[in-house]
Design a protein that fits this description.
By secondary structure, this protein is α+β, with helices and mostly antiparallel strands. It is built from 11 helices and 8 strands. The strands form 3 sheets. The protein has a 4-stranded antiparallel sheet. A two-stranded antiparallel ribbon has the order 4-5. It has a two-stranded antiparallel sheet with strand order 6-7. Strand 2 and strand 3 form a beta hairpin.
């Protein structure tokens, strides 16, 4: 009787480890990781040896040394006797200032541009088209230099270009009217804080009601209106009590050599802000246009059947749905605007990159300065992304 070979159950085949593709894949990944680690260690050792020979070993001790260089404009108080660390903070705040203002203005301009691109008006639609095609095909750096050169051509301060008595353009920058706190500002701020507290309580209570009733609802706009109403009421009460407004508009007045009152921004800041806003608004406008086109045509027909005007249709039906498509790519444009602000070094605006470059030239601490620079841009970008992702989740449809 013939004796057959022992049967091997399926899935129980004994394969040598050197022929098992799963084990081979793990071994290859481990070897690759070791090679990368050895390569990084080799480069790091060479870098440290070079820096040691040049007596430039990385250290952060320079942050407590007086900087000794001026910064043309600053959000916070600064003078050359302050430390390099404080100068770096000034650079961060200057970048955040231009990024925040630029994002707000670019969003407003981009929204107008995107709607204009879809307008039935032939002239408006084609003007927007020409604007988009011209601006997005010219490098941003060239545009910044153009705006900076243009602001330098403004007349002397004694011959400023007057725009409505509130804005004055001159070769030192732009001077404009600006709100100024009065003697009763602190009293009015107590009303503002009270409005924020009441609005916050209203928002929490309404949200709890919506959850208990298991139905959707909008509470944030009403909470905002309540806070705003209380603040406005306090504004009037403060004025009626003392006869002085807690906040007044400081209008600049030209004296012999300079303006008094208002606020003045430098040519560099004005050119950087104008360039970033005009350039970024083009891409935001195209995102808005694509978001509006993504909304089904049936939604417009349904809104028209309900008797809504074109303005109401756009505001109440189209834009809320288009936002779900607009917000993700809009986040990328906000990040691009923030990072593109580093081009300010070409027009001498003291942003983060400009200040960090000056610190590097004076101290020779390239590695620590670059690490601080990367960490700063990374932090700003991550905070922007976190906020936009949170807002994107808020406006997405919730499926039950």
């Amino acid at each position: 009787m013939a004796v057959g070979s022992p049967s091997i159950p399926p899935g129980k085949v004994n394969i040598p480890f050197y022929r098992d593709t799963r084990i081979i894949a793990v071994i290859v990944q481990i070897v690759f990781a070791l090679l990368v680690a050895v390569g990084i260690w080799y480069l790091y050792s060479n870098m440290m040896n070079g820096l040691r020979q040049a007596n430039l070993l990385p250290t952060f001790s320079f942050l407590s040394v007086p900087a000794g260089f001026p910064i043309a404009e600053s959000v916070i108080e600064y003078n050359p006797s302050m430390t390099y660390g404080w100068a770096f903070v000034v650079g961060i705040l200057n970048t955040v200032r231009v990024a925040v203002i630029g994002i707000i203005l670019a969003t407003l301009l981009g929204l107008i541009l995107g709607i204009a691109r879809l307008s039935d008006n032939w002239l408006l639609r084609n003007v927007a088209l020409v604007y988009v095609e011209i601006v997005r095909n010219i490098p941003l750096l060239l545009q910044l230099i153009f705006w900076f050169s243009l602001t330098r051509l403004f007349p002397r301060i004694q011959e400023s270009i007057d725009i409505g008595g509130l804005i004055f353009l001159h070769n030192r920058g732009v001077t404009m009217a600006w709100p100024q706190a009065g003697n009763d500002f602190d009293t009015w701020m107590q009303w503002v804080y009270g409005g924020i507290v009441v609005g916050g309580i209203f928002y929490v209570v309404r949200r709890i009601q919506f959850i208990r009733r298991d139905r959707p609802g909008v509470a944030l706009p009403y909470a905002f209106l309540i806070a705003l109403g209380i603040a406005f009421l306090g504004f009037l009460v403060t004025y009626l009590m003392n006869g002085v407004w807690p906040v007044s508009l400081s209008v600049p007045v030209l004296q012999r050599f300079n303006f008094e009152g208002g606020i003045t921004v430098t040519n560099s800041f004005a050119a950087l802000l104008i360039g970033l806003v005009i350039y970024t608004a083009v891409f935001i406008g195209e995102i808005v246009r694509s978001g509006i086109l993504a909304v089904s045509k049936g939604q417009r027909e349904a809104a028209r059947a309900l008797g809504l005007t074109p303005g109401q249709t756009m505001r109440l039906v189209i834009l809320p749905q288009a936002l779900r498509v607009i917000v993700p790519p809009l986040t990328s444009q906000y990040l691009n605007l923030t990072k593109n602000s580093s081009l300010a070094i070409a027009i001498a605006y003291p942003d983060l990159f400009y200040v960090a470059n000056t610190i590097n030239n004076q101290t020779g601490q390239a590695i620590p300065v670059i690490l601080m620079l990367m960490a700063s841009y990374l932090s700003v970008s991550l905070l922007t992304s976190l906020f936009m992702n949170w807002y994107n989740r808020r406006i997405q449809l919730v499926e039950r």
